[in-house]
Amino acid sequence: MSILLTGCAGFIGFHVAQALLDRGEAVIGVDNLNDYYDVRLKEARLARLAERAGFAFSRVDVSDREAMAALVAAAPDVTAVVHLAAQAGVRFSMVDPYAYVQSNVLGHLVILEACRKISGLRHVVYASSSSVYGANRDLPFRETDRVDAPVSLYAVTKRADELMSHAYGHLFGLPQTGLRFFTVYGPWGRPDMAYYSFARAIVAGEPITLYEGGRLKRDFTYVDDIVAGVLGVLDRPPAGDAPRLLNIGNHAAEEVRTLVALLEAGLGRRAVVRDAPRPAADVEETFASVEAIGALAGFRPAVGLAEGIGRFVAWFKAWHAVA
Q: N or C: which end of the chain has fewer CB atoms below 10 A?
């Protein structure tokens, strides 16, 4: 038996792969190693996975229907799929919207079609996003909230994935759970994300831009908590054909300027700050209700922002050779 994991060289995928291997699972990792950010970081993650027993890798784009169909046909023992591959980044969706439709929408469809061909499949867990809540102002965000007012194309593609999965559950009985991730951070993270780009700028003495004085709030969720939630949900497939949607976050909204202060303390340097208006694609606050995933899988976030940023800074210093 094996688990098919897409996006294995990505930030969350890398950590999920390690956790699956740690508990003795065989993992078939899929990634196209695109150059949205420094490929060397992806290659370094992948190199660590390649050293592990039980890991096999295929360089495949999930939107390539023939390649994915061939991959699934060659791996008849797959019992679960963790689909994390996607074009990431909210703001970049205004620069290259086609990449998001190709990877997130077509890619999700290709995965669903491939999963229909897996006879022993027990569960598909896939990545959605807190961005689907869009302009919603009711806090905390709950799975029962309306999600019909997106403020970015990225959010649109993730909501499209949820709707596709609902249809495939209804039509084909495909057991699925979509996880709405809330601002994941930690070691081996994505350089395009705020906490990582802030750290690089602070070390270099370059200015960082804070919107509305850093008063925007985010539900920062440490990657180890995310991984625990993913595995807990993976082990509990839905009983019926109605796909589930679950928030997975830290259940704590923190101001971005608090994040900056923690980075300054850990790096021993002051940030050079520029203020700017909030971009149209950014929301004022994200805050996850996690009661549903807690009831299902016993999920309880364990790592607060101060501890998590401390761990990230330690990794960041080692990776970038910062004294």
A: C
Of the residues 154, 185, 195, 196, only one is catalytic, namely 154
pTM higher than 0.90 for the full model? yes
* Phi then psi dihedrals of residue 46, to 5 deg: -60, -40
Tell me: pLDDT of 161 over 90: yes
154 is catalytic: yes
Does residue 323 carry a pLDDT above 80?
no
Token pair for residue 250?
A: 């830290």
Tens digit of each residue's pLDDT (9 = 90 or more) over 123-143: 999 999 999 999 888 999 999
Q: What is the mean pLDDT of the chain?
A: 95
| Mean pLDDT confidence for 140-164 | 95
Domains of the chain: 2-183+222-250 (3.40.50.720)
For residue 236, give both structure tokens: 């509990």
Q: What is the pLDDT of residue 219?
A: 97
